[in-house]
Amino acid sequence: MRAAASDRAKKAKPRSLMREVAYERFKAELFKRNLAPGQFVSQGELCELLDVPLGPTREALKRLEAENLVRLIPQRGIQITDIGVTLIHEAFQFRTILEVAAVRHFVTVADDATLGELERITTDVLKRLDGGSNADPRLLDAALSVDWGMHDMIVESVGNRIMMTAHRQNFDKIKMIRLHGRSPRYLPLAMEEHLGVIAAMKARDPDKAAAAIEHHMRCAERRALGM
């Protein structure tokens, strides 16, 4: 009896691993723009793209649907979540609530060296962006990494796993909104807003830091809406 249970566990492990592979590969293809918002794909097409068998792919799709990255529509297939006004507003509204609370904590725990490094890399990438005229893909990737890195650092500082999971799931939607809609010329504006947040954090002023990050979120939402 115990041996049979062990055999079942061994068989189940590769399937669970493949489910995780399918989940991660789906997001990678989405962020590489090989899957477009609103696009319909069949299960077969998705299995081929992800190079994962049907069973684990179906299991990954359930998780992706729960995170609102896809819709499973009977008789039609799988629809990649479309980007609309409601999605943009809700994603940025949630992000604002989360990060305003987190930055108040971050101000009290971040050391001077961390804040100094944040300021240095942000200033460096802003100079290299040259007002948005430099469209080198590698530089744009570096700028986005600096952008996302600061927000991750702020939320992670709280040390709350539930908050961090919610942040990551919501940030997947923010990435999708940015990668499929926002012009690179907006990145210098985002970096300048980051410097405003960093200045408030260096001053160790929780109210100013919260106000600065709320302003950044409002501006980012307006840019995502094309305003």
General description of the model:
Helix 6 runs parallel beside helix 8. The chain has a three-stranded antiparallel β-sheet with strand order 1-3-2. By secondary structure, the protein is mainly alpha-helical. The chain has nine helices and three strands. The N and C termini lie far apart (about 65 Å). Mean pLDDT is about 90; it is low at about 1-10. The protein has helices at about 1-30, 45-50, 55-65, 85-110, 110-130, 135-155, 160-180, 185-200, 205-225, and strands at about 40, 70-75, 75-80. The longest helix has 30 residues, at about 1-30. Helix content is about 75%, strand content about 5%.
Short description:
By secondary structure, the chain is mainly alpha-helical. The chain has helices spanning 2-31, 43-50, 54-66, 85-109, 112-129, 137-156, 161-181, 187-202, 206-224; strands at 40-41, 70-73, 77-80. α1 (2-31) packs across α3 (54-66).
Which regions are unreliable across 5 or more consecutive residues at pLDDT < 50?
A: 1-10
Structural class: mainly alpha
Backbone CA Rg = 20 Å
| Rough outline | globular
> Widest sheet: strand order?
1-3-2
- The secondary-structure element order is HEHHEEHHHHHH
| Mean pLDDT over the full residue set | 90
Helix content: over 70%
> What percent of residues are in strands?
under 5%
Q: Please give the count of helices.
A: 9
Regarding quaternary structure, what we see is single chain
| End-to-end CA span | 65 Å
The largest sheet is: 3 strands, antiparallel
What is the tally of beta strands?
3
